[in-house]
Amino acid sequence: MSKKIEKYTFYTTEWQEYLSQLEEKINESAYLPKYHLYPKTGLMNDPNGLSYFNGKYQVFYQWFPFDSFHGMKHWGHATSEDLVKFKDEGFALIPDEEYEKNGAYSGNAFEYNDELYLFYTANYKTDTGKLAKQALAIMDKKGTITKYPKNPILDGAPKGFSQELRDPFVFERNGSFYMLLGGGRFVKGEQTGFGDIGELLLYKSTNLVDWTYQGTIDLPIDKGYMLECPSLVTIDGKDVLFLSPMGYEKETYRYQNRFSSIYLVGQLDVEKRTFELEHVDELDAGFDYYAPQSFYGKNQLPLTFGWFGCGEQVYPIDTEGWKHGLTTAQEMRVVDGKLRRFPTEEVQKQFADKQTIRTDQLLLEYPYYHLQFELNKKQDSTICFGTKDDFWQLNLDEKKETITIDRGYLAKKIDTEYGMKRTCEIAELADNITVDVFVDNSFIELYLNEGERVFSFRVFLESEQTTISFSKETEATWAYFE
Ligand code: FRU
Question: Domain Glycosyl hydrolase family 32 C-terminal spans what residues (predicted)?
Fold first, then answer.
């Protein structure tokens, strides 16, 4: 275990022994989840290449396998029948070519002629800054992944744009192939590093390998200084565009994390390069959510996974050698023009043995449960989860019309630089609010009204048992993960 980890190290078989030992150590962690995908070693970030291909879900992810910091990005791979149990498929992309010498960054998957095309950004640094390169790898039905021999398929950014141009998202519309790339444009003098204004660039192709730049998409929103991780799905006739802007302006309650993830509902016109905007909002009010990717699952079900993390957070268990994970797979609907996302039926089915009780205190033995209760918007409420000296809490403030998650009472403090509280406004919600809390040990997803608002966040409680104290008698339904 004494190998020195360089930031830009890529995997070779020489690392196998080290990684096996690290995996054994991590298996002892008290904070591993059971139904969230997490890295068997090292750091996991963005979900990539999400698809239903060859009769299975294919879930790829950004992965630095050697330690719990952001280093050379590989693509890890897992497959799943149900998006609850995941089979580890190991490395999908190892950045061992010159054009990707600083990592295989994020991208998506597109099925074509019975093969899965994996688009990604080849991270390439020089002494004077980055050079934007996009690359392709193709997975066949046997699961063999081959990098396209003529990579990169796109080299450099258009004039006036930052070379931080990345995260290809390829889709089909009106019989043509399109690629979205996130980036930024320079408007001031300096022409290096990130741009000054985030931009979404559109490319077109007839064969998925030769791409021509079309221009930027006109987005009538704050775009920060850089847009990351675009993805697009159509739900009930509406286009839903997902973006992860850096430098998004903070509001009183929204956009409190270092970076934000937003969704836009409306209509994308690829010819005019416009997005007719009907609604825009943040995707998640929690502390630990970023860079989601949306896709169509089995039977064209619109699904999304997010990275259960954001930026370079400091966690109390960083020395364990593993970090972050992905959210559950969430099914999406558009209700009254707004997006809702909620764990898939498969995830919900894992909590079958439901019990209901009216109480002001509930003791749950294991930290893998689904708890449901209702809140009345017109009454202040406080609900604590944990033990007397180590808990997190939910507060409903009737006057302010807000719900707040507070991590300030935890024994193991988390990423305090970015604050201990996250709040969302509930003025627009109906008087009775259904709260669903899915706890998977240190991974928590809390939903209001089946995804009208969502908080994703980590906690590291010291006890396996959780006492849930309600400020008044409440009817609560719970079930353990089976
Ligand atoms: C978002 C991101 C992407 C990039 C990847 C690198 O979290 O910064 O823009 O491709 O992570 O790991």
Answer: 364-476
Select from 327, 222, 237 the least CA-distant residue to 281. Answer: 222
Span 96-143, pLDDT tens digits: 999 999 999 999 999 999 999 999 999 999 998 999 999 999 999 999
Q: Give the mutation target among 60, 61, 62 for probing the ligand 1 site: most ligand atoms within 8 A of CB.
A: 62
Measured CA to CA, the distance from residue 338 to residue 292 in angstroms comes to 17
Tell me phi and psi for residue 294, to 5 degrees.
-110, 155
Q: Is 254 helix (H, G, I), strand (E, B) or coil?
A: coil
pTM for the full predicted model:
0.97
Q: Which CATH architecture has domain 13-341?
A: 5 Propeller (2.115)
Regarding an ipTM greater than 0.95, the answer is yes
Stretch (H or E) spanning 215? strand 212-216
Task: Give the binding-site residues of ligand 1, using a 6 Å CB cut-off.
Answer: 45-46, 62, 73, 105-106, 121, 166-167, 228-229, 290-291
Ligand 1 mean position, distance from CA 392 (Å):
29
Domain ranges of the chain: 13-341, 351-480
Taking the CA atoms of residue 59, residue 63, residue 65 and residue 69 in that order, the dihedral angle to the nearest 10 degrees is -140
**What CATH class is the domain 351-480?**
mainly beta
